[in-house]
Write a structure and sequence with these properties.
Largest sheet: 9 strands, mixed
Number of strands: 34
Structural class: alpha+beta
Helix content: 10-25%
Number of helices: 14
Shape: globular
Oligomer: single chain
Radius of gyration: 25 Å
C-alpha cells in the first residue's frame, strides 16, 4: 500500500501534510493556499481554476505523477534540530532557517527545498505551522454601560507600572480609544507589530509586517486634534474591524478601566486575511504566534533598558487557538512557548477555546456543531474494530474545503485504518507504517490516509485522514457531504485507547459562491471533554476557562480538559461572559464600549492579574504563577477544591493572587 514519494529517503522526517502538498500541482496548491495558512504562492498564476458546481465527476481523472515538487509554492514550518553538526559546515537547514529557540527554528521554504532540508543530518523533523482559529466571541450591543474602573481595581491601584502587558490578537488595536490614552492625550501603546502591514519597516530579524512605534501613534493623535482624519487612519493597520477583538482584549487586560491599568502595553496583530488572493499570498499560522512571542520578549528587554529599569516582567495574552496536533503540548508552537517561559518574570495566558458545547441550547442553535471536535474510545482486544462517525457539512451537497482528522494512540498498539464515504465506498485498511496519498474516490474527491508509528514529537502513533476536493483548471469537485466512517482495526492491542480531533476550519466563503463549513463528529462519536485548544495545552501556559459570573457557572461554550496526556487544563476560570470593554474603531454614533462573551474575554482578565502579580514580584516563574492560581482559586458553589474539566481549579481571586505573590518575596527563619 505504501509508495515512496519523490521526497527521497528522508521523507519520514517531513509531516504527512507537507508530503501531500508537495505532491500537488501548481493549480491544486494555489487553490489549497486559500485555506492553508502555512502555504502561500509567491506570485499569482496567470490562470486560476474556475470552480464549477458538479455533483460527481463526468469521467475518471487520470492523474499524472509529478517528478518533483512544484516551484512557486512556499510553506511555513517548524524545524526541529538535532545536536549533529553538518560536515561541510553549512547545510540546507542553515541556509533557510529564520528565528530560533532551543532546538526549534522557523523557516519559510519552497516545496522544492523540502527534500534537501529533510536530508540535512542536523534536521530531526519538519512540521507545518498549525491553523490559527479565528476567535468567535458572542457580541451583544444591549445593556452596554461604561465599565467602572473599580470593578477591576485590584491590589495597589493597578500595579507599579513595571510590567509589560503584551497582547497577540486579530482585527487591529485602536490605540486612539479613550481606554488607552494618557492624561496628556498620548497613547499607552508602546508598539504595535502589524504582521500584515506595509506602512512602516518590518521589525528587525523578521522581515515582514509593519512596526508602529509610540512616537508614530502620538503624532497621529496630535494631528487628529486639528481635524480631518482620525488617528487610526493616519497610522493604519492591515485590519481595523468594527468592534475589534484585539482592542476589546487589550482593554480588559490593561486598559485604563482594565485590570493592570498602569502597565506598559504592546500589541501584535496576527493578520487573518479574508480575501482569496490575500490568503494565497500570506502566512497566518502558528509560526506567526511564535514570532509574536519572541518579539514581545525582545521588546521587554529593550524597554527595560530604555526606561532604565532593573527588570521588566512580561505577561502575554493569546486569545487565539489551534486545534491540530496531539493536544499534549508537543506541537512546535507549544514547545517554543514552553522554552520561552523557562525564564523567570514571564507568563503567557491562552484562552481555553469555545468548543465546549455538545448539544443545542436553544431551538435552531448551532453552537454545538462548533463544539463536536473531540472523540475517544478503546479497542478492547486484537481482532476487534471501533468506528468513528465524522460529519462533513459543506453546503449540504459538497464541501470545497479540506477536512482533516487526526487520531493519536499508544505506541504499544498497532491499528489499521479504513475509511468509508457517505456513498458506501471503502478505502483501506491501511496498515501501520503504510499510507495512501491523493487517491481519487468514486465521487471525484481525493483522500489521503497516513498511519505512522512513533511520531517524532511525542513518540505516539498517529493516523491522519485528509479529505480534499479535486481541483482542475475547469472544475472543482468538493468532498461529499454526509457521514464518513473511520474504522480502526485492532491488529495488536495492549492499551487500546485513542483520541481524535478535527482540525477545524471556520465558516467562510471560498471560490465564489462556495462555502467552507466546519466538519464535526456525530453525537455518538463526540466525547465532551479534551476540547481545550491545543495551544492552551502547553506545559507552562495558563489555560483559562470562561466564567459566567452572573449565573455562577462555567459558560456552556467553554472548552474542557484534560489534555491527551491527562494533564489538568484549563488551570483557572475568570469572568468571560457579557464583558464590557473598548469598542475598537467604532463608527460615528456607535457606543465606544461593547459587550462580548468567550474565553477570549476571560484570558486577558487573568493576564492582567498576573501582570499585577509580576509587578509585586518580578522573579516569579511561570510554574510558581500556576501554583499560586491553583492555591488561591475559589470553587464554584457545590464544587470542591479538586480540579474540574470545565472550571480548572476554580475562579481566580485577584487580591489573593497578588498577596500570595508579594508573600513569596520573603522567607522566615524559624531556627
Amino acid at each position: 500500500m505504501a509508495k515512496k514519494p519523490f521526497l527521497g529517503g528522508s521523507f519520514h522526517k517531513i509531516h504527512p501534510m507537507l508530503r501531500m502538498i508537495a505532491n500537488g500541482s501548481l493549480n491544486v496548491n494555489t487553490l489549497r493556499s486559500s485555506e492553508h495558512p502555512s502555504i502561500r504562492v509567491k506570485e499569482e498564476p496567470k490562470i486560476v481554476p474556475r470552480p464549477i458546481r458538479v455533483a460527481a465527476p463526468t469521467k475518471k481523472v487520470r492523474r499524472k505523477k509529478l517528478k518533483a515538487p512544484t516551484e512557486g509554492i512556499e510553506t511555513s514550518v517548524f524545524v526541529a534540530r538535532t545536536s549533529a553538526k553538518h560536515k561541510e559546515g553549512v547545510g540546507a537547514a542553515d541556509k533557510v532557517l529564520g528565528c530560533s529557540r532551543g532546538d526549534l527554528a522557523t523557516a519559510s521554504v519552497n516545496l522544492s527545498e523540502l527534500e534537501a532540508l529533510a536530508n540535512d543530518p542536523t534536521v530531526a523533523y519538519v512540521e507545518p505551522g498549525e491553523r490559527v482559529v479565528l476567535p468567535t466571541p458572542q457580541v451583544s450591543e444591549e445593556g452596554v454601560r461604561v465599565p467602572r474602573a473599580a470593578d477591576r481595581n485590584f491590589g495597589r491601584g493597578g500595579g507599579s507600572g513595571r510590567v509589560l502587558i503584551g497582547v497577540i490578537d486579530v482585527q487591529g488595536f485602536d490605540f486612539s480609544h479613550a481606554d488607552f490614552l494618557n492624561s496628556d492625550g498620548t497613547t499607552r501603546f508602546e508598539r504595535i507589530w502589524d504582521q500584515g502591514g506595509s506602512v512602516h519597516a518590518a521589525p528587525q530579524c523578521y522581515g515582514y509586517g509593519s512596526e508602529i512605534m509610540k512616537p508614530d501613534m502620538d503624532q497621529a493623535l496630535e494631528t487628529a486634534k486639528e481635524g480631518g482624519l482620525p488617528a487610526v487612519e493616519l497610522e493604519p493597520q492591515s485590519q481595523m474591524a468594527d468592534g475589534s477583538h484585539g482592542t476589546h482584549v487589550a482593554s480588559i487586560a490593561a486598559g485604563n478601566r482594565g485590570v493592570c491599568h498602569n502597565a506598559l502595553l504592546a500589541g501584535v496583530l496576527v493578520t487573518l486575511p479574508k480575501e482569496d488572493y490575500e490568503r494565497r499570498q500570506s502566512f497566518y499560522d502558528s509560526t506567526r504566534i511564535a514570532h509574536a512571542v519572541e518579539y514581545l520578549l525582545d521588546m521587554a528587554e529593550e524597554l527595560r533598558e530604555g526606561y532604565g529599569l532593573d527588570d521588566l516582567p512580561v505577561s502575554i495574552n493569546i486569545s487565539l487557538g489551534t486545534n491540530g496536533h496531539a493536544h499534549d503540548g508537543s506541537s512546535g508552537v507549544s514547545r517554543w512557548i514552553d522554552h520561552a517561559l523557562a525564564t523567570p518574570g514571564r507568563s503567557i495566558c491562552v484562552a481555553a477555546g469555545n468548543a465546549g458545547q455538545e448539544k443545542p441550547d436553544s431551538p435552531g442553535g448551532l453552537g454545538h456543531i462548533m463544539g463536536r471536535i473531540h472523540t475517544s474510545g478503546r479497542i478492547p482486544a486484537s481482532g476487534l474494530v471501533d468506528d468513528i462517525f465524522w460529519i462533513v457539512a459543506g453546503d449540504q451537497v459538497r464541501d470545497v474545503s479540506e477536512n482533516e482528522c487526526e487520531i493519536w494512540y499508544s505506541p504499544a498498539d498497532r491499528f489499521s485504518v479504513s475509511v468509508r464515504t457517505p456513498n458506501g465506498e471503502w478505502v483501506g485498511p491501511i496498515a501501520p507504517g503504510e499510507f495512501i496519498e491523493n487517491r481519487q474516490l468514486n465521487d471525484g474527491a481525493m483522500v489521503s490516509i497516513y498511519n505512522e508509528l512513533y511520531h517524532p514529537a511525542n513518540g505516539a502513533n498517529y493516523i491522519g485522514v485528509y479529505l480534499t476536493p479535486y481541483y482542475s483548471p475547469t472544475e472543482v469537485i468538493g468532498v461529499s457531504a454526509g457521514e464518513w466512517v473511520i474504522r480502526l482495526h485492532g491488529v495488536e492491542v495492549r492499551d487500546g485507547g485513542y483520541d481524535g480531533w478535527i482540525e477545524r476550519d471556520d465558516p467562510q466563503r471560498l471560490l465564489g459562491d462556495f462555502w467552507a463549513f466546519p466538519s464535526f463528529f456525530s453525537v455518538k462519536s463526540n466525547v465532551d471533554d479534551s476540547s481545550v485548544s491545543s495551544l492552551a495545552c502547553g506545559q507552562r501556559v495558563v489555560s483559562v476557562a470562561n466564567l459566567d459570573a452572573a449565573q455562577e457557572k462555567i459558560n456552556i461554550s467553554s472548552s474542557q480538559g484534560p489534555t491527551r496526556d491527562e494533564r489538568k487544563k484549563p488551570d483557572v476560570a475568570a469572568p468571560g461572559t457579557d464583558i464590557v470593554a473598548a469598542n475598537g474603531f467604532a463608527q460615528d454614533g456607535d457606543s465606544t464600549w461593547i459587550k462580548m462573551t468567550g474565553t477570549s474575554m476571560a484570558s486577558p482578565f487573568v493576564a492582567g492579574v498576573i501582570g499585577l502579580m509580576l509587578a509585586e514580584n518580578p522573579g516569579l516563574t511561570s510554574a510558581q504563577i500556576v501554583g499560586i492560581l491553583q492555591r488561591t482559586s475559589q470553587p464554584l458553589p457545590g464544587d470542591a477544591y479538586q480540579w474540574k474539566n470545565d472550571a480548572g481549579y476554580g475562579v481566580i481571586q485577584p487580591e489573593a493572587c497578588i498577596a500570595e505573590a508579594r508573600a513569596q518575596k520573603t522567607t522566615r527563619d524559624r531556627t
